[in-house]
């Protein structure tokens, strides 16, 4: 497979979509250059690398950009494979399809409902949004029971595609080394509050 000649990651601090990619690279043992975007801006590198959506993250491998976090996870697993590197996508075609399905469900249904809890202002609205987020989490819990086969992760004994998509394995040493401190995440969330309350589109995916 392709050598790690040049690997760069365009992203912003605290984004769960960017963290997905950082976790996958860490699990695979891939060294990369972190090109962190300034909050509220879009650099020339970002616009050039993702001219269609202009969103983060973007993985640049040997000068070639790959966009959309879930697509990047698949790319990382395809490129940096082998016995010495853990697989992210399940080897069984059905399990792999289910991992992709529920990852897209999380992005399409659960994450938006979770963000709504932050976006709304009144206590009553936050309670309603939280109840909706919990309701949309139920199918994921049922999927975990089926996909995990009684193991610790969606991928079984090891962290897999859907685990990374949901970041639901915070006790893992590799993951803890990548995730930012809680206080830093809170500060980032405070910066996001006015963005969630505005009609502007998201800058990460």
Automatic annotation (TrEMBL):
Family assignment from sequence similarity: Belongs to the GST superfamily. Tau family.
Source species, domain of life: Eukaryota
Catalytic activity: RX + glutathione = an S-substituted glutathione + a halide anion + H(+)
InterPro entries in the record: Glutathione-S-Trfase_C-like, Glutathione-S-Trfase_C_sf, Glutathione_S-Trfase, Glutathione_S-Trfase_N, GST_C_Tau, Omega/Tau-like, Thioredoxin-like_sf
GO MF terms, alphabetically ordered: glutathione transferase activity
Protein name in UniProt: Glutathione S-transferase
One term under GO cellular component: cytosol
Cellular compartment(s): Cytoplasm, Cytosol
The enzyme's E.C. designation: 2.5.1.18
Function: Is involved in the conjugation of reduced glutathione to a wide number of exogenous and endogenous hydrophobic electrophiles.
Coiled-coil region(s): none
GO biological process terms, semicolon-separated: glutathione metabolic process
PROSITE patterns found in the cross-reference section: GST_CTER, GST_NTER
Positions of the GST C-terminal domain: 92-205
Catalytic class of the enzyme: transferase
Organism: Dioscorea zingiberensis
Entry annotated with the keyword Glycoprotein: no
Alphabetic keyword roster: Cytoplasm, Transferase
Pfam families named among the record's database cross-references: GST_N
Domain GST N-terminal: 5-84
């Amino acid at each position: 497979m392709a050598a790690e000649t040049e690997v760069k990651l365009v992203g912003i601090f605290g984004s769960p979509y960017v963290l997905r990619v950082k976790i996958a690279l860490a699990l695979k043992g891939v060294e990369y250059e972190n090109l962190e975007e300034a909050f509220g801006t879009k650099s020339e590198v970002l616009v050039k690398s993702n001219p269609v959506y202009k969103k983060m993250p973007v993985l640049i491998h040997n000068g070639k950009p790959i966009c959309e976090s879930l697509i990047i996870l698949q790319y990382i697993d395809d490129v940096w494979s082998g016995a010495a590197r853990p697989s992210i996508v399940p080897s069984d075609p059905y399990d792999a399809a289910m991992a992709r399905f529920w990852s897209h469900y999380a992005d399409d249904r659960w994450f938006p409902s979770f963000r709504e809890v932050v976006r709304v202002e009144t206590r009553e609205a936050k309670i309603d949004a939280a109840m909706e987020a919990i309701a949309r989490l139920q199918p994921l819990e049922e999927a975990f029971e089926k996909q995990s086969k009684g193991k610790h992760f969606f991928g079984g004994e090891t962290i897999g595609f859907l685990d990374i998509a949901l970041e639901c394995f915070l006790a893992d040493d590799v993951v803890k080394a990548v995730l930012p401190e809680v206080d830093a995440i809170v500060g980032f969330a405070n910066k996001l509050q006015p963005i969630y309350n505005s009609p502007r589109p998201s800058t990460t995916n």
